[in-house]
Write a structure and sequence with these properties.
The complex is a heterodimer of chains A (496) and B (467). In chain A, 45% of the residues lie in helices and 15% in strands. In chain A, helix 5 runs antiparallel to helix 6 and helix 7 crosses helix 8. The two termini of chain A are 29 Å apart. Helix content of chain B is 44%, strand content 16%. In chain B, 48% of the residues are buried. In chain B, the strands form three sheets. Chain B has a nine-stranded mixed β-sheet, with helices on both faces. Chain B has a two-stranded antiparallel ribbon with strand order 2-3. A two-stranded antiparallel ribbon of chain B has the order 9-10. Chain B is built from 18 helices and 13 strands. The chains are: A alpha/beta (496), B alpha+beta (467). Chains A and B meet through helix 4, helix 8, strand 3, helix 9 and strand 6 of A and helix 1, helix 6, strand 5, helix 7 and strand 8 of B.
Chain lengths: 496, 467
């Protein structure tokens, strides 16, 4: 797309100040309104004179009964008001799976394995090209079963991978938070492409000896945005059960999903998906408010599945040779953009400051009524959030979102670096990105984070968190050893 | 002092409004079952004893001991001649199920039953706020919940959840999920879809513990419409009174007793171990511990407490199982929907609860007519009771199900009006209960018990299977 010619420098500076002034005026409207009110009251007082004021004061009759009654009513109203507010959902802490270096898949290993497994040289070439442009680094990891030539995707190996990633993440979380497994009330697990019976949630109940009255749910097939879906479910459950906590596990199991065929649209996931898992502890207990890291402000879910094109854009099916794989259609970017627009339409009014909303509203009115050619106003989300966690689905997704939301390179740095260091870990990628921001010491108290996930269906889910305490570095987690080496410059094409 | 008076009255009205809002919220915590529709597969998917025989014959890995085992299972299963299976198995392709086969099996159910439910209840798909799907052994991407959303063009902000891997008790897990969402206070309409996928899960080996699944599971499904809107109470069939979930997965034996895994040769199958009945009993006891206080009248509870104290003090050596039998569950419950896991399961639960033949009849007849349809079986049992006109206003129905993990989930419904809809049982209810439940296999294949390894001639015996 051709870039718009940049306006004159002096005009742009003037415009910037005008915009700043406008934002300040609108956002602090009520406070600014107080100034003329105080001025008028003060003037009135001076005009009246002190004697008049004292006579006015004496004329007020204070009836004891009346006062006690009013006081009681006020206290009562305050109690009822506080009791009927929705319970806050706190994110006490979270832990991500830190893969061992022995599972690393540098480009050379990947290409060598691919050329040994794949019979069609064109497929090998295609996968090389994808890897060159993928934005992945040399330290991403695949599970042990995928290191075999050819890969050995038995159910036992898939369960072993699940146990490795999930139990490591939960062990880390237990160490960080001092969580006692017997105190977990709600358990939600999401893993899209591996769903054995008994479920992964039953596996966790078995390993950590959770209580028999635990409310466990195992979501499957819900794609890369399922992490936020699980948080939504946990939130709904926490609203209903006071004084509880919820453990949410997001992961994707790679072992059973290696594609053995030659269809190009199905080879992409082989190149991009990598091993990862995240364990998140949510709570609605008031005593956890002091030690919690974040509070959940909003969570918006959008599902574009009613449209056939959107539904088929990430689709699991069998190719003509009977090999099962996930096809990613060429429309993916356009559909993602569309889904994001829908999601923004809902979340915008909840998070944007009044100045942006008014601008958006007036441009909309202008476009509908006055001048249809007026460029649509894209609200400036940088006003509403300090940090962005965009699902590291692939380089193209991050590029597309950076463009449509008009974000700077620093805003998408967490996503790009996570993609580089860990690859596309599906639903847990948002948590790796958040960990990156914390490890770089950028997370301060009061900061707001916007997590956006995309997934098959086609869904776009987003969550807004508010940081409750400044996170001090160094931070325990997968970025502990390598945060200093980042950010790195990721070239457009890595020559292999 | 008018200012203070006005302020007080305003605050008073505001607090009254908040109290009313709170009270209104409490009103919305009820879960009403508006209607449900069970799935009746097409008649060309029928699996008869003859079909079963042909399927057994196709598996070349089976030897005499396996035939003995299989025939014993089929004969004692309590499953009749009119159950349904997936197309690929009937067409002879059970060894190599494709992804498309599994999808076709699901589509046949989803495209029919959900549309029927919408037509029956006159609800538009766009009114649905929550959709929960539980299909344990097949979970494609995008999820089956997304598939339903697309097929029926539901709203963009409809909350969908796709549960998987949660076993035969998953339909009550879905109801639990919906019930929790209902408690948040907003008026919500929810659809729960429950079924099981058999196509990709056929076991083609000869490990006996894994062949049981092949013999017992049949195709079926159910779709339910639930709401918390008090305005729809008059249309509701039943109201949910309580729901108790128990998970004893912390115990290793219980967790491993029903597990999907590979056999020695690498073929995937559903392993049902010998420890399963024990795990079921433990889970059931644990569940009853929490359920009994919620459903039994106080008199019964008091009697039980008296009995336990007496036993502990006077005769401390007696087993605890006998204490369970002394509770008369029928004092608080009128009808029992038992999971049709197999005739042994039904008998065991019936004995534990002290049930009569009349009480276990719906479950046994459902097992006979539909087989073990996994999570949706409870709804077929409910359908039988409804078709027999047993459900009257005010009756209380107890549903109990077991599932891999090991879970025992139970819930109690109160019938809201006299129910008369036969649904999928309408065409055959007159034939139930039948004169005899004895399986015709018994006389035809008696040789199984007479043959030994030396006298067994496979070809000859297989010829005899061709009627």
């Amino acid at each position: 797309m051709p870039r718009q010619p940049s306006p004159d420098f002096s005009t742009s500076v003037k415009l910037k100040y005008v915009k700043l002034g406008y934002q300040y005026l609108v956002n602090h409207f009520l406070t600014l309104l107080l100034i003329p009110m105080i001025a008028t009251t003060a003037l009135e007082l001076f005009r009246r004179g002190p004697e008049e004021i004292s006579t006015l004061y004496d004329s007020i009759e204070f009836d004891v009964l009346h006062i006690t009654f009013s006081v009681f009513v006020i206290i009562f109203v305050l109690i009822v008001y506080f009791m009927s507010r929705p319970r806050p959902v706190y994110l006490v802490d979270y832990a991500c799976f830190k893969p061992s270096p022995s599972c690393r898949v540098p480009f050379a290993t990947f290409m060598e394995h691919t050329s040994m497994i794949c019979e069609d040289p064109k497929s090998v070439q295609f996968q090389t090209r994808i890897l060159e442009r993928s934005g992945l680094g040399e330290e991403t990891c695949l599970p042990p079963a995928n290191h075999y030539i050819p890969p050995n995707p038995t159910m036992e190996a898939a369960r072993a991978e699940a146990q490795l990633v999930i139990f490591s993440a939960i062990d880390d979380l237990i160490k960080k938070t001092g969580l006692q497994p017997k105190h977990i009330d709600i358990l939600v697990v999401n893993c899209s492409l591996f769903s054995p019976t008994p479920s992964l949630s039953a596996m966790i109940v078995n390993k950590y000896k959770l209580r028999s009255n635990i409310k466990s749910f195992n979501l499957s097939g819900m794609g890369c945005s399922a992490g936020l879906l699980s948080i939504d479910l946990a939130r709904d459950l926490l609203q209903v059960h006071p004084g509880s906590n919820a453990l949410v596990i997001s992961t994707e199991i790679i072992t059973p999903n290696f594609y053995k065929g030659n269809r190009r649209d199905m080879l992409l996931p082989n190149c991009l998906f990598r091993m990862g898992a995240a364990a998140v502890l949510l709570s609605n207990r008031r005593r956890d408010a002091s030690r919690a890291k974040y509070r959940l402000l909003h969570l918006v879910r959008t599902h574009k599945g009613a449209d056939d094109r959107a539904y088929r854009c990430v689709y699991q099916e069998e190719d003509s040779d009977g090999h099962c794989g996930i096809s990613l259609s060429k429309d993916l970017m356009a559909i993602a953009g569309d889904a994001l627009k829908s999601n923004i339409t809902t979340i915008g009014p909840l998070v944007l400051p009044m100045s942006e909303q008014l601008l958006f509203f007036f441009t909309l009115v202008g476009r509908k009524l006055i001048k249809p050619n007026l460029r649509p106003y894209i609200p400036d989300f940088k006003q509403a959030f300090e940090h962005f966690c965009i699902h590291a689905g692939g380089r193209a997704v991050i590029d597309e979102l950076q463009k449509s939301l008009q974000l700077s390179a620093e805003h998408v740095e967490a996503s790009r670096m996570t993609l580089h260091r860990f690859g596309n870990t599906s639903s847990s990628s948002l948590w790796y990105e958040l960990n990156y921001i914390e490890s770089k010491g950028r997370m301060r108290r009061g900061n707001r984070v916007w997590q956006i996930g995309f997934g098959s269906g086609f869904k776009c889910n987003s969550a807004v968190w508010k940081c409750l305490r400044t996170v001090k570095t160094p931070v325990d987690g997968p970025w502990e050893e390598c945060a200093d080496r980042y950010p790195v410059d990721i070239p457009e094409i890595v020559k292999l | 002092m008018e200012f203070l008076a006005t302020l007080t009255t305003l605050l008073l009205f505001f607090s009254l409004y908040l109290i009313l809002k709170h009270y209104y919220l409490k009103l919305y915590t009820n879960c009403y079952l508006i209607d449900y529709v069970c799935f009746k597969p097409a008649s060309d998917r029928r699996i008869t004893t003859q079909t079963s025989g042909q399927i057994i014959e196709r598996n070349k890995t089976l030897g005499l001991s396996e035939y003995k085992f299989l025939l014993k299972v089929i004969v004692n299963s309590g499953i009749g001649e009119d159950t349904y299976g997936p197309r690929n198995i009937i067409e002879g392709r059970e060894d190599s199920p494709t992804f498309d086969d599994a999808m076709i099996e699901m589509d046949e159910f989803l495209n029919v039953s959900i549309g029927d439910l919408f037509a029956k209840t006159k609800i538009s798909p766009r009114d649905v706020d929550v959709l929960v799907v539980n299909i344990s052994m097949f979970s494609p991407a995008p999820s089956l919940a997304s598939r339903i959303l697309k097929r029926y063009k539901m709203r963009e902000d409809c909350k969908i959840y796709n549960l998987s891997g949660m076993g035969c008790s998953a339909s009550l897990v879905s109801v639990d999920l919906v019930r929790n969402i209902f408690k948040s206070g907003k008026k919500t309409l929810a659809v729960v879809v429950t079924s099981e996928s058999i196509t990709p899960n056929w076991y083609s080996g000869n490990d006996k513990s894994m062949m049981l699944g092949n013999c017992l599971f049949r195709s079926g499904g159910c779709v339910m419409l639930l709401t918390n809107n008090p305005a729809m109470r008059s249309r509701a069939k039943m109201i949910l009174k309580c729901l108790v979930r128990t998970h004893i997965g912390a115990n290793d034996d219980a967790h491993n007793c029903a597990m999907q895994k590979e056999d020695d040769v690498g073929r995937v199958g559903f392993h049902l171990s010998k420890g399963l009945p024990k795990a079921a009993v433990r889970a059931f006891a644990e569940n009853l511990k929490h359920l009994a206080p919620k459903i039994l009248p106080y008199r019964e509870l008091a009697l039980y407490m008296y009995g336990t104290v007496k036993q502990l003090v006077i005769k401390p050596k007696l087993e605890s199982n006998s204490a369970m039998a002394r509770i008369n569950f029928k004092s608080g419950v009128d009808h029992f929907c038992l999971h049709t896991g197999g005739s042994a399961v039904i008998e065991a639960v019936g004995r534990a609860l002290g049930l009569s033949k009349y009480d276990v009849e719906p479950a046994r007849m459902t097992l006979h007519r539909w087989g073990n349809t996994s999570a949706s079986s409870l709804w077929y049992v409910l359908g039988y009771m409804e078709a027999k006109r047993r459900l009257r206003k005010g009756d209380r129905v107890l549903m109990i199900s077991f599932g891999a993990g090991f879970k025992c989930n139970s819930c109690m419904w109160e019938v809201n009006e006299d129910l008369q809809d036969g649904d999928v049982w309408e065409d055959c209810i007159k034939n139930y209960p039948p004169q005899t439940l004895v399986n015709p296999y018994l006389e035809k294949y008696g040789w199984v018990n007479e043959d030994t390894e030396e006298t067994f001639n496979r070809e000859e015996r297989m010829e005899s299977l061709k009627w």
